[in-house]
Each structure stands twice: as C-alpha cells, then as structure tokens.
Amino acid sequence: MTPSIGRRRALQAGLAGALAAPAVAHAQQTFNWKMTSAYGKGSPFYMEGPGSATDLARRIEAMSNGRIKIQVFGAGELIPALEGFDAVRAGTVEMNHANAYFWTGKTAAAQYFTAVPFGLNFQGINGWLYDGGGQALYDEVYAPFGLKGLACGNTGVQMTGWFKKEVRGIDDFKGLKMRIPGLAGRVYAALGVDVKLLPAGEIFPALERGVIDAAEFVGPFLDRRLGLHKAAKYYYTTGWHESATVSELLINKAAWDRLPADLKAIVENACAACNVISEAWCQRNNAEAMDDLIKNQGVIARPLPESVLKRMREVTNDVLAEAAAKDPLTKKVHDSYMAYKKKYDAWAMYSEGQYHEKVLTA
Predict the structure, then answer these.
(1) 200 and 82 within one domain
(2) More reliable by pLDDT, 358 or 320
(3) Residue 21 predicted with pLDDT over 60
(4) 72 membership: H or E segment, kind and range
(5) What residues make up the domain containing 96?
(6) Sign of CA dihedral 177, 178, 179, 184
(7) Model-level pTM?
(8) Residues 84/37, Cβ–Cβ less than 8 Å
C-alpha cells in the first residue's frame, strides 16, 4: 500500500467516525420525565392495568430502550387531582394523564377531545382523531397554552349514572344534586340540576351522605369498585353523555419539541396502543361487573325514559351551539366533529347499527 493511499483511507475512516459520533451521542440521549394523573394511585383502568398511565409509561420506556423514563404520580401525590393542566403548562411536570374535558374552563373546545353528548362512539372518535382531522385540531387548540394532547385510552360507552330515586320524567332533575363533568354537566344545569365536579375518590362518600343525589363516573366495573351501588340502587344505562370517553396524555410542548423524531413516534404509538388496549379491558370487565351488579347486588338497571332523552338532546344542541358561537376555534372544532359524525353515523347505520338491530336480536 502506498503512503498516499494509506493516508487517504485513514482520512476517510476518521471523517466517517466524526460524522457518526453526533448521531451516536444523540441516540443515547435520555429523558427523565414526570407524569401526574387526575386519578388516585392504584385506580384500575386509569392508573393500573392494561392501557393505564402506569402501563403507558412502561411501554414508552421499553420501546425507547430506556431513553425515556417516566415517573408516574397519582392524584394528590405531587399536585392536586385537577391541576394537571397548569402543572404541565408551567413545566412543573412534563406530562399529565387525565381527560381533556376537565380543562373546558381553559378552552371550551377541549370537550370534543374527550366526549360530546350524543356524540361519536369508540370507532367514530378514533376515526375523527386519527383520520378525520381531529388530531390537527387538537394541536391547534392547545398550541396557545404550550401543550400537546394525545389520545391514550378510552372507556367505551359510559353509563348515565347512579340515582337514589327513580327517574320518571324530566321534572325529576329539578333541584337534583349530581356529580357530572363536562358538557353533560352544562346540559344538566340547564335542566335545573345542581352540578358538582368531584374527583373519583370523593364521589362515594358524597353520595352515601346525601351531599349529592346522583353521580356519574364511568361504567359497571369502575363504579362497583368505588362502591356506588351501595349508596344508590337505580343505575341508568343510557350513555347519552359519554358515548366513548377518551383518556388524554397532556405533554408540555417545549419538552415535546426537545424529543428526537424517533422518540416522538414511540410516544405516539404507545398512546395509540393504550387507546385500544384500555377499551378492550373495559369491555371484558364491564360485562362481568354488570352481571354481578344486577344478579347479586340488587341494582335496578334501566334506560332513561325516551321523553327525557329527547329533551336532553334538545338542550345539548343549544349548549353546543352557544359555546361554538362564543369562540371561533371552538366552532371550527365543532364543525369538523359534526361533519365527520354525520358521515360516520350514516355508515354506522349500515354496519354497526344493522348488527345490533338484526343480528343480536335474531
């Protein structure tokens, strides 16, 4: 080998090493983040089990080969249950696991990224978020706050809730004290309900002591876990208010922007996985719990009267229209959601609707 060839090869090897070094250093960069939750430590579905906040953190760490490590805190461990929005916005923590409709006081449009009364079901909301422009609007809504939101779980259809007394008509809601969040709370308020927003851990004692007369939480498994069936026996099943309730991973946008592209993709895909896995968990556990509540716990399960649902739909339309009229961005989200829903509902009548109407009753 001549000296010139040797020098040239050495130079090429050195240059290749120099170019690779930043990439190697970049690939080894690690991130240690904190995630708070609106739900207490150990809470099934939200904090423990398949698709929960803890499961999501584990998946992100495993998929990133330890490059993102997330310490998860239940409600009250680091911050109060419903202060995640402000904590993430301030950079106190990088992430919060909750539901976007808790932040409707910050922006009315947040409701659409959790659940809308008489809205999309699990398949429909995923279609809008992932393929119908919903995620882009999600980003637009949170951009002024320096935040990013991702769907990371879903309960499927929820139950109307627990009532100490039978509901016979719309007048039964006047003066009723009820725990209910989001837009549904505004609908109930318009019907004369005294609406309360309580964290999960406070619902049972309030219902048991008569501080409230009715309460909505999630569905049979989680409701039974809170003991709500011990404080009220009428369980109304018509999930008009939350036909599919999205769990949200709220991320500080500055922290998000510091992640390299591959780690962003890992977080996004881990969230999508937990979105599907958590809903599957709910289906299995709710089936067992509902059977137990009716057969063994003396629960009276029934749908709301049709006259009540009709009036609730009318009020819902008024509440949604009023919110959209006050804020151009909320109207933009509303119009997108409803346009997608119109097309999806037409298709669902041929698909899921036919299955439920014809096949299940055959």
Answers:
(1) no
(2) 320
(3) no
(4) strand 68-73
(5) 30-154+244-284
(6) negative
(7) 0.88
(8) yes
